[in-house]
Structure formats: structure tokens, C-alpha cells
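Example 4.3 (complexes with small molecules)
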Amino acid sequence: MRILVINGSPKGERSNTWQLTQAFLDGIAEQLGADGIEQRTVVVRDSNIQPCLGCFSCWRNEKGACCLKDDMQSIISDRTWADVTIWSFPLYYFGVPGPLKNLIDRQLPMALPFMEERTDGVGNGSHPSRYNMADKRNVIISTCGFYTAKGNYDSVLTQFDHMCGKGNYETVLCGQGELFRVPELHERTDAYLEVVRRAGSEFARGTIAPDTRKELGQLLYPRQAFEAMADASWGISRETGKAEDETIVFTRQMAALYNPASFDGAERVLEMDYTDRGTSCCVVLGKDSATVVTDGSVTPTTSIHTPYDVWRDIAQGKISGTDALAQHLYRVTGDFDLMIRWGEIFGDPNGGADSPESSTDGSGLKPPVMLAMLIPWIAFWTTMSIGPMVGAVGTIVACAVTALAFCQHEHTFYDYLSLACVLALVAASVAGVPFSVLSPVSFVAFGLMWLVSALWFVPVSSYYVKGSYGGDSALGNAIFIDTNRIICLVWGVTYLAAAVVSFFAPQITIVTSQLLPIPAAIFTVVFQRWYPAHVARG
Ligand SMILES: Cc1cc2nc3c(=O)[nH]c(=O)nc-3n(C[C@H](O)[C@H](O)[C@H](O)COP(=O)(O)O)c2cc1C
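Answer. The structure with flavin mononucleotide bound is encoded below.
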């Protein structure tokens, strides 16, 4: 495929739109392979393209030669060479930028002077093409500054209807174009670029699929969030017209990402205390929106004490917030719950990929659940206390039901290990080993599983609760792992204690297995909230 790319942004390669164009080209290359593509690029900004003089000398000249000698001759030859022309440009005043309009005007030599009727219902009258352009394809890729592309490209599309024939071109038109240069938002813009890449592949195969087209039309951010971010980005107060401190601008942009759906009835006030700048901004997280208050008139419920650069690096994804917290690069005082729910409160307004319900490994399975690991053990302790026969049948039935009930969930190594241990214990019981022996052995095995995982590996509990803390990324979070390590140690010791009790009193195994964990459970509930907040306070 021969591709001519016309970059009509005055910013050249620093253009927002160019990122989309690159993604589209990557998609084509992915489909056709690098050898399947020949590409020529015209950067309008760097080309010598003079405005048309309107002298019609090109039409008087039988070869269609323009009297102006500049880069247009080679551009016209590129246009006739290419199978596909990609027009990449920003929307300027609801049209194409001026220099690109010059290029379009200077294509007059590509037409013959004679009058011709149009057959596609676009306008009245046209000129026949001097060259055979019938099978040539055109793609318009453009970004604009308003929140949506919808309704803003009517002039451009009408112009291309006239140039190429009605709708005889593909489009990738994207609002909120300036967001493509904001590193803090790269996760969202990268996701959009991925859709553009897919569109490129589909275009190379034939045409952009309806689903992809629909995704291309989706807003990067909801209108309200985008416009709040955009307004804040100028660093000028709307009320006073005066320049604002960059920490206030930054906080306003952060507040713009507030997700009102996370409001749970309690109004929270997040204070951003920029320790190196001596400034502090409060974000009031209300029912419908987040408001930035800088006059000290509100009382914070959570305060983040951080150097400005640290928080900016976190926002840009250069360091994760939890890693920075573990390294004591910032401190948090007050209600730590807000930090735990950060992803939900300032998260992705379009989806919530990190929600606990979503699959963590792309397999379509739900996250693992601890019950899948616990039920076989509980069934063993409960039913074996009644008798070996009831125990064997009850435990096996419970294992089978558990496997069925959680078949839609991912399984961890510890689910399988538990199942294997419990079935081995059942087999030993069937072989005649008395419960007075099996009971302490089972508690030792269960306790060791927690202890060994806590001391040498990723603690057992981490796998089951990571979904509420950002998914797999939580496994790399030192505070999360330390919290779980300590909790697992407590559970390990608890069950070793249970082993001792059941060694001396196997007849009360059912009571032991149900009462001993109560203090450990209370500890877990309290500790998992207290410890991260304690570390965060510095
Ligand atoms: C002179 C000028 C005119 C603009 N006119 C519009 C417009 O009419 N509608 C719009 O949504 N954005 C408009 N914008 C915003 C740009 O289209 C937007 O910033 C775009 O993402 C820039 O893309 P680029 O980086 O590829 O040049 C205008 C920008 C400038 C500088």
C-alpha cells in the first residue's frame, strides 16, 4: 500500500493529532507488515507552499502546470502516486488550518477546467479530475479542542465531500485533543490510541468496523471533567483573571477527575499540603462535584503532606502512590479510608478497570475468593468431629460444591494446596487414622500454610484481597504486602495454637476451629485499617 501522509499541524511532529496518525499507521503496518507499506510524508509547516494566485494558468496550460514553482509539484505527484492519502490536521476555526487550505487550493492543477454535473448530490457542478483518482482512498485524522468532535467538523466534512465525493473517505475525529499531551492522563489517551491503531488495521483489511467506529466516537472524559481540567490548565482564575499558583492549577485538575458516583453520603475534604511550596488547597468532595477551596475556610478530613514534585510524579505515573508512601516520600494524616478508595474517587470515569469485580488477568475469570480455600478445611473440622464416615462424605461433598460454586473465579495456589491437604486427610481417615491424630495435624498444616507464606512468599491473604486494592499491582505494594504478612503471621500462630488445643482435647475440635479464629478475625479487621494509616502518618 502506498501511503501519503499530509501533516497539516503547525506543530509538526509535536502535534496532538500526529499521535493518532502514528497509531493509525502502526495499525496498518501491523496488518500489512513493514514491507507491505511505502510511505511518503509531507509536513506542511516545513514545505514551501505558496497561496494560489487565482490566475488559472494551470488550466490554460495543457499539462496542468502551475506558474508557481515550489513544493506543490512534488506533492501533486505524491498524491497521484499514493493509494491512500491521510490528512492529519487540527481543527482550526471549524475548518482546516490555513497552510493546509493553501495546499488544498493548490491542487487545482489536478482538475480539468471543464464543467461537469455531480452525481453524488454534493453541491452543484464539479470539474473532472486530470488524473485517474477513482480508486484512491482518503482518511481524515483530526483532533479538536472542544469536548466532542460531534457537530464541529461540518465545514471540514462538507469540504471533503466536495473533494473526494460524498462520504468517500474514512474519518478519525477526536475531541479533547489537547489531552494527548498531558502525561498525567496517558492511561486514558493510550487506550484511545489503541482503538485508533485497531482502526488502522481494519482500514488496511477493508473498512473500519462499526464497533471500532463507535469507540472512536466516545469521549475521552465526561464533558464536565474535561472542561474543568481545560479551564484550570490556563493557570488563570476565571473569577479574578489573575495568574494562579501552579499547585492550585494542579489541584484543580486533579479535582476535575473526581467521580461523584463514589460519594457515599459523607462529605470528605481532602487537603493537599504542598510542603515545599508552603501552599495548601482543600478539595471538597461533594455529592455532585469537587470544589477547590484555598482560603482555609474548610476543615480537612484527610491531609496529604507532600512535596509538589512528588505528587506530580505520582500523577504522571513515574512512581506509584503506594510505593512513594512506603518510601515515606509523603505523609497522610486523618481519615485513611479516602486513600484506600483513591482509585474509585479519582478513578477512570469511563469504566473502573480496577474495580474489585473485574477480572485481573484478562482471562474473563473473577478474582479469587478466600472461601474457595477455607471451605474444605471448615468442612473437614466440622464433619469429622461427628464421625469418620460423615466426615469423609461431608468433606468430599463440600469440596465438590466449592469447586462448582467458584468455577467462575480464578484459583490460587493455596486453593489447590488446601484441597490437596484436605483430601489427603480424608484419605488418612478412611485408612483408619483416628481424628484425635488428624485434628492436630490438620491445624498444623493449615497454620503452616499461613506462616510459611507470610515468612517466605507472598502472604496467602494478599491474593484474596488484592482486588480491593488495585488488583495485581497491589502485590508490588510494600505496605499492602507488609500488612498481609503480619495478618498471616497472626493466623498462622492462631492455628498452631489450635493444633495444641486439639492435641489435648480433640473432642472439642469443632469449638476450637470456630472460637479460636475470633480474636484473629477482630485483629485482622482492626489491623488492616490501622497499619497502613500508621505507616502513612510517617
Ligand atoms: C487558531 C486555532 C483555532 C482553533 N479552532 C478550533 C475550533 O474551531 N474548534 C475546536 O474544537 N478546536 C479548535 N482549536 C483547538 C485545536 O483544534 C486543538 O488544540 C488540537 O488538538 C490541536 O491539534 P494539533 O496539536 O494536532 O495541532 C483551535 C486551535 C487554534 C490554535
